[in-house]
Amino acid sequence: MSSTNKRHTYYGGVTNDSSGTFQHPQRTTEQRRKHVTFGPYILGSTLGEGEFGKVKLGWPKSFPSSSNATLEFPKQVAVKLIKRDTISNDYKKEVKIYREINALKHLSHPNIVKLEEVLQNSRYIGIVLEYACGGEFYRYIQKRRRLKEINACRLFSQLISGVHYIHSKGLVHRDLKLENLLLDKNENLVITDFGFVNEFCSRNELMKTSCGSPCYAAPELVISAEPYEARKADIWSCGVILYAMLAGYLPWDDDPNNPEGSDIGRLYNYISLTPLKFPDYILPIPRDLLRRILVSDPKRRINLKQIKKHEWLKPHFSFLSITPDEWDKLQNTQSIFRLAKPTRRYGSRPQSSCSTSSIGSRSDKRDSLVIDSTLITFPAPPQESQNHIITRPASIASDQRLSPIRRSHRHNRSNSAASVALQAVVNADREYALNHEQSLSSAQNIRQITACNATSGFSPPSVINSGDVLIETSPIKRNTISGGNILINLEKETTTLTHISQVQQNNTNSSQNHQYNKPRTQNSLQSANNFYRTSSSPHTKPRPTSYHPGSYTAPSYNSNMPSMHEINEKTTSSASSQTLNQRETSPFDFTPYLALDTCITSCSSIESSPKLITHGQFSMAKPSVDLQSVSGDLIKYKADAEVVTRMYDERYKQKRKSLRYSGIFSDISCDTVTEESDDLKLSESPIQQHAERKSIENTNAENLSGKNMENRDNAIISAKKSVKVPSERSLNETESAKKRFSFLSLYSYNNSKSSLYSSMDSKRKPSPPSQRRPNKGDSYANSRSSSTKASNTSTSRKLPKDQSTPMIIQDGLPLGTKEVAPNARSSVMVSEVNKASVDNKAIQYPEQSTAKRVLGFFKRRSMRV
Ligand SMILES: Nc1ncnc2c1ncn2[C@@H]1O[C@H](COP(=O)(O)OP(=O)(O)OP(=O)(O)O)[C@@H](O)[C@H]1O
């Protein structure tokens, strides 16, 4: 195959010869010129298109020369190309981009897309990301109609782990949805699109951006004016994603009055009033988890800590118990994990093509989970293993550190002749690869493998295929070495090993943990399979799945981060030093700030706040343009052939060690940053609770259309009362963009504060009542004002039909909500909502009533008798 194809797509350079080994294509200068290039990358096909432009597949122009050329594939990357023109006049977009960059540079987790570098020339900014070649998660579900429980459980664990990591950095994603989840080549989840990370928008903007397609947005974002706990909003989104994985469609997708879900107000009204329904094939345990996540009241919504402990995720407790600190330490020692590919017994899966990856336009993707007749269905394996694959790196015993296969977790049928033979091949391959690796001696490639034997459930695979292991090297210049049969764990750093051992000690029995609860889970999964065989999804209705949330997050900071200096000290080997030095050339640390003057310079108190993004860490800082020239261009036209520069800051070298971790993270007091409250106890087993809930639901079902329905209406009305009107929230539009951003940062701080306090102490004294004045003829506003008292006194006045329809949002604004007093709006709204929520707690959540529970209990008992 010629190295140059018509679509400029990289096909791995695999030749058709029978040897099957990779050979460097002999490219002529002429052929080279045909490539579209950007900086050091050749650009290939379009992977997708986003708000800012196209995302292209890329691979390095120059292959690293090595004696083992046959093993080396150039690492593919995804280059997000942003036309400078498109952002130069759009401050919001610019901010979004820098937020994304600055967030990604601090995140290092196997389920979060990795930032390789950022390049720019006069026309484009190129964000070079790790290439997630498994395609879009959205399509993955689409192809399968829905995921098997075992697979959903694995992927959801990864999502939760990634989200927890993000939250631990004081960030919230705020745009979690299927479209922002990709898969790597091992079918592991990769969270992308951090454009909304920690971005605070005024309420006005929130409403505006929420109305695109709020299917994943938590209700409090729409029906409440309370500065919301953004982490809880992320959790809601995770719940919607989980529901979509298991059901194959989005929850609350069946409102006959709003079939397209285009009426946001009605949609949220429906969400609030309609109990979550499940198709038969979703089993009680995941149902229980979903019921706990998809709770309208964020205070009653389960938090990540509790999710991680939920019974359904038990098979992945080991993975979920890896703390963010541990991920960081692993990153600092350059040991990045990739999760190995889940193995299937039979039934082929369409291989995600790295070269012809999904090309989807946004509009395409917004079609939600449409199930069409061309979907391929796969036979469900009789019993899939728990192929979570990732294992605690620390649990690698010292005598096995150089092996990707843990002897203690051998294939459980390893006594068979076939297994013995197979093992011999594996051993030979391992040795072969080890030799190769040693000869490669590219010191920056510090690798760690986590592998698992899918057959045994939690052990590493007996055979490692080319697709099974991904090698991570330096974050800046990483090369994926594949193409051979085996990639071996090369932990050349003694410090790495030491550290890993420590991690292991901190998490004892990690390997044994893999076995916990297996029989039970398998039983349930087995019965799930039975369900799969007999059930089919009744829902096929499409639903837009994209939304753009706004508003703010309450970041928390981790003060336990080791300083870069410490790490450097610990890092003794040359390999490690090299990688660290390479890290230091990371483009975005300690960069000048785009518009944080107010935030940074004038508010010293803010700097000490855990809520504030302080100087030197995640921010919307514009990457420094103290640039290092590299040859590069986007050669389509000759005019484009301008110098591409790597965004690079010399100061970074000096500052990073002292600032990035020790200086920044340790500066910040963690005292006031709390995990989400643990007030929701998972005391009862999910099954118990499920049974109980079921009976309660049955008991209440009759009442739902009656008094309870009215009460819930009232609850909704009272919640809506608190919806801020746009003019309340709008900032002074005359402010310059720069100032405005600074203000937003401050505002976000303030809001986060109230948010945090409110979450810690929901009975905080309410602020004075809202001063807002509804417009004449504004039905929603009228209903709001008229129901203010009603909600406070918990009266059961039913909302008339026309009024029960929530605000219609146009241009992001609820209709007819225009005039309001701008004073102290956030606090007013917080208190209002708090009060309303306290007043209506019993109404909104009748299932919590003790009387009802007792009733349900006796009812069940009498039925049994
Ligand atoms: N790292 C990646 N690997 C593979 N494909 C990617 C990667 N990043 C993005 N894509 C593809 O490009 C598409 C658009 O990317 P992305 O969502 O990041 O762009 P965007 O401009 O941020 O979009 P938006 O903000 O509108 O959601 C994705 O849906 C995906 O198909």
Can you offer a commentary on this structure?
This protein has 865 residues and is of the alpha+beta class. The chain contains 32 helices and 13 strands. The strands form three sheets. The protein has an eight-stranded antiparallel β-sheet. The protein has a three-stranded antiparallel β-sheet with strand order 7-8-9. Strands 12-13 form a two-stranded antiparallel sheet. Strand 8 (181-183) and strand 9 form a beta hairpin. Bound molecules: adenosine-5'-triphosphate. ATP binds at residue 80.
Tell me the distance between the termini: 75 Å
Counted by DSSP, the helix tally is 32
Order of strands in the sheet with most strands:
1-2-3-4-6-5-11-10
Number of strands: 13
Bound molecules: adenosine-5'-triphosphate
The percentage of residues in β strands lies in 5-15%
Q: How large is the radius of gyration?
A: 27 Å
Overall pLDDT, averaged? Answer: 54
**Approximate shape:** globular
Category by helix and strand content? alpha+beta
The biggest sheet, with number of strands, parallel, antiparallel or mixed sense and barrel status, is: 8 strands, antiparallel
Stretches where pLDDT is under 50 for at least 5 consecutive residues are 1-22, 200-212, 345-426, 439-643, 648-686, 699-713, 715-848
* Helical content class: 25-40%
User: What oligomeric assembly is this protein in?
Assistant: single chain
Task: Provide a short characterization of the protein structure.
The chain is of the alpha+beta class. It is built from 32 helices and 13 strands.
